[in-house]
Amino acid sequence: MRTALQRHWPEYLMEAASLGLLMISLCSVVILVGHPASSLSQVVSDPLQRRIVIGIVVGLTIIALIYSPWGKQSGAHLNPAVTLAFWRAGKIAPWDAGFYVVAQFVGGMAGAWIMATLLHGFMAHPAVNYVATAPGASGVGVAWLAECAISFVLMLVLLTASNTPHLARYTGLFVGALLTIFIIVEAPLSGMSMNPARTFGSALPGQLWTALWIYFTAPPLGMLMAAQVYLWRNGQHGVACAKLHHHNDKRCIFCEHHRQKA
């Protein structure tokens, strides 16, 4: 544990900071399109239009983070479920996986706390509601199934793209595009989380714990199932690395782990 922390703390901080920035971006765009005091909310008044705007902003933010210097070094998991899936594939050391998950939760909480502190009146408004995720009108069962399904699809696409030579460089674009589509199409069912750290970060400042178990169980299970399906089809060596953008000049703690195992 101490060795991992001493050697890889920059990657842990990058994961935390990146998810914090994602939360700030998400909260900002939801306030802009949802809060009644925002002029943009008067222009974009239809719920579908608002989801389109939110989806595009979040998708572009994810893409920017993946291809940023921090994302190129940490791997830009930004999600405990993604980290657990790569751990299942044997591409991340157990201590690194644990510290990544902790960092992601810290980043999610920090981003939401910053926004709730600076813009409390906006974040607390019912139209924004701290950007908390909650099941839609179809109920918790549908929300759980939807979260599990979209998490499965995202991880399977991520693994396929990142391990296909002519597609690997576009992995971040695939991920950003899928997140945009899911926010537009799936959000009415579950709030579109796929990320326990993102949901917990939003829930904490407003103490909004409705059906939290959905977002702590469905995304990890969906992504672990995707990793297992990919391993069944391609074997342990079918996953090259746990980075979403690997071909760069940044160090790779996952390749270090692979060499140590070898």
List keywords for this structure.
single chain; 262 residues; mainly alpha; 72% helix; globular
Describe it.
This protein is mostly helical and 262 residues long. The chain is 72% helix and 0% strand. The chain is built from 13 helices and no strands. It is globular. The two termini are 20 Å apart.
How many strand units?
0
What would you call the shape? globular
End-to-end Cα distance, whole Å, is 20 Å
Instruction: Characterize the quaternary organization of these chains.
Output: single chain
Class based on secondary structure composition and strand pairing: mainly alpha
Flag low-confidence runs. Answer: none
Task: Characterize the largest beta sheet: strand count, sense, and whether it forms a barrel.
Answer: none
The whole-angstrom Rg is 18 Å
Would you list the SSEs in sequence order as H and E? HHHHHHHHHHHHH
- What proportion of the residues form beta strands (DSSP E)? under 5%
H/I helix tally: 13
Helix content: over 70%
Mean pLDDT: 94
Write the layout of secondary structure elements.
Blueprint: H1 2-34, H2 39-43, H3 47-66, H4 69-74, H5 80-88, H6 94-118, H7 120-124, H8 140-162, H9 171-185, H10 187-190, H11 196-206, H12 212-234, H13 253-261
